[in-house]
Every structure is written in C-alpha cells, then in structure tokens.
User: Fold these one by one.
Assistant:
Number 1:
Amino acid sequence: GAVVSQHPSWVICKSGTSVKIECRSLDFQATTMFWYRQFPKQSLMLMATSNEGSKATYEQGVEKDKFLINHASLTLSTLTVTSAHPEDSSFYICSARAYLTGGADTQYFGPGTRLTVL
Amino acid sequence: AQKITQTQPGMFVQEKEAVTLDCTYDTSDPSYGLFWYKQPSSGEMIFLIYQGSYDQQNATEGRYSLNFQKARKSANLVISASQLGDSAMYFCAMRELRGQNFVFGPGTRLSVLP
C-alpha cells in the first residue's frame, strides 16, 4: 500500500513558539492531503484540506492564521502551528489521497505527531 | 446530523473467533464510498477495506470482510479468526461523491482476549 510519513512523531515546545509538522507521500504523488486533529479517545476531526499549488481549505472553526498549511509539492504538505498554546496540545495526523485498483480513492495516513505545549 | 454511527464503544472477542463491528451511515448522495480503518495504540491509521455504493458484492480483504446492506445503510466490518494484534480502535468512514472529505464515525475499541 501507499506509504505516508510524518515528522516529527512527537514534539514538546514552549508556549508562544511555532512548530512545523511535515507530511510526505513516499511512493506516490498526492495532489490532495488532509490534516486532522484527534483528542484522546475521540475520532478524527478534519482541520483542512491541502491541495498542491493552491490555498488550503479550512474547516469551520479552524483558524487559518493559527494553523498554516503549505502544500508546496506533490509529495509534501506542512502544517505550522503558530504561537502554540497548551490548548493546541493534541495528536495531529495527516493523510494523502491515493487511488485504489478500480479507480476509487482512499486516504493513507501518516503515523501522527503528538504535540505537547508547555 | 450524525452521518456515521458506530453504536459499540467497545467490544471483546476471544482469540480465533469472528467479530462484527457495526457501522450505519446517512447520506442522500447516490454515489459514495465506505471505508474501515484500524488505529492501534501507536496512533497510525491503517486502511483496511473499501466498499463502493454501486459495488454488487461485499468487499473482502484477507480476514476482513464488509457486510454491506445498502437498503439498511449499514456497512459492518467482519473480522474472522481474531488475533491478539487485532486489538485496536476501528473507525468507519464515508466519502460522498459531492465532497472529497471523509466523515469518520466515533470508533469502536476492540479487545481480543487470549
């Protein structure tokens, strides 16, 4: 299956600093990537859809200036949490759209990044 | 409105037995896709199986099969011959033709007992 990597896998930072998370599709090109946030024991919450070469589409309630997304190439999307605060502490997961045999598309997920803001 | 419902917050199954994880969905779109993902404690979401709304046969992938009942809008995941490594959270998801986003259910935690 398609492989998606995410870096870093965990990060601890001080309040007020910015953190960049990278999402890469390793063996396929992804014109569309997605960023999710997951709180403990809850389901995934879509934050934004990242399309290569264009601006990301953010879900309602997600601050664009807080969570900066850049999809600069067909294999890389980045999420930057700017001026992080403790309430931004969470598990962030990216995914990339890929196509199955037969033409249907699915999402392959990265391993996630656990962010802790002190 | 809740588009994906998973009524079982937690399930237990004995090793080597089969287990069914429930998923019902709600959509007015005639074309959609249904997906199941596994999330072990490591956090990674692992794609398991896909069912298209127009597929005539139930999808199967190894020990995973999807019991698709379109009229009832259900897409239950069946895991045969459970293994200890199957212990994880399982999420049902749907993508409608109109959108490119997935909608995830709340998940079911499966515990396989030795």
Note: DSSP finds no helices and twelve strands in chain B.
Number 2:
Amino acid sequence: DIVMTQSPDSLAVSLGERATINCKSSQSVLYSSNNKNCLAWYQHKPGQPPKLIIYWASTRESGVPDRFSGSGSGTDFTLTISSLQAEDVAVYYCQQYSGTPTWTFGQGTKVEIK
Amino acid sequence: QVQLVESGGGVVQPGGSLRLSCASSGFTFSSYGLHWVRQAPGKGLEWVAYIRYDESSKYYADSVKGRFTISRDNSKNTLYLQMNSLRADDTALYYCAKPTTGWPAPFDYWGQGTLVTVSS
C-alpha cells in the first residue's frame, strides 16, 4: 500500500505570512492515462467534515481562495497558503486517490496562528 | 444539493456488531462509487472501504478486512457498513464520502459522520 507522510506535524504562522506543508508518497501517484498526479489536499476544521481544496496536485476546487496552491509531482508534493488568514486554522491532510486499490491519507498537519 | 447523512452509530461492546447507514440525495446515487472514512479520537483520517456503483468491486483497508462489509441499495439511495467483531480501536467518527466524477477521483462531498464507540 502507498504510505503518505506529511511534514511538519504542526506549524504556527503569523497572520498574513506563508504556510507550507509537505507530503511525500512511498511510491509515485502519477496516473499514466492523463499524466496527472492523484494527490488531493483537504482542510478539516473541528465539528465539520473534511473539505476538498486541491486535487490533481495543483487544481483548486471551486470556491477555494487563490491563496491556497498545490504543487509537486511523482512522490513529493506541497500545499502553500500564501497569506494565512484566521479562518485557515485547521488540520490539513494530503491523500492519494490512485485507487491501487486503497486510498490513503497523510497523518495531518495542524496549522495555527503564531 | 448533495447530502450524505450517516446514522447507526452508538456504543457497542468489544466483539459486538453494528450497521451504519448513509442516506444520500442530490446526485445520481446509482452512478457513483462510495467510500467510508473514519477518524479515531485525536487521530487522523483513515480510509475504510469503497464500493463500486454496481457493487461489482469492493475494497477494504487491511485494518478492517474480514470484519467489515460495505454494501449499498441503489433503490433506496443508501450506503451501508456492516461492522462485526468490533474492537476498541474501531472507536471513531465514521464518514461516508462521495468521489467526484471520473476515475480516479478525490472526495468532494462528506457527511457529518456517525460516532461509534467500542467499550465494555
């Protein structure tokens, strides 16, 4: 099974500053049929279900602010929040959805305000 | 709008059984595979099981294989998770989740979850 490892486990960032979360997969999540990476990012706030924010590693879900961006390919991926807002405080998870046939999440990264 | 509503959670003793349901609306239920995902207290998200739209394929996490069974009733727009031989480490909030259109696909809609507590 593909193992997803995020770093760091938590980070504290000042309002308006950049937050960067890394995600590494134990094997490539490249989908050969469209040459895209099966990598998603979710935002999870207490008392709410997770929210999809990025898929195909870099495609922003509809309605997600453009301060959120995803990058990377193969086995190394990054979620960047360019200017942290108070409402961005949450736990963020990466997920591989190649369906190999399992779907695995990273352990999560908690983002807080410094 | 898409709605997923889980039910069936509760407190059960170790070794016991429970069946979760996920009632769905707002999309063509019979056209989508569906997932169960759980989150243990203080822990991260863990994918549990997947069922294809026509039940022709079912996949499970190793942690639940042989104990949990995913099924669906397309006439009732309802997804199920039969959980047997429950253990303390199955205690979690269980979500049903719908993937986006296409394959492979991330999960764009989630229910609010139903809480399962395994305790004597």
Note: The CA atoms of residues 71 and 84 of chain B lie 14 Å apart.
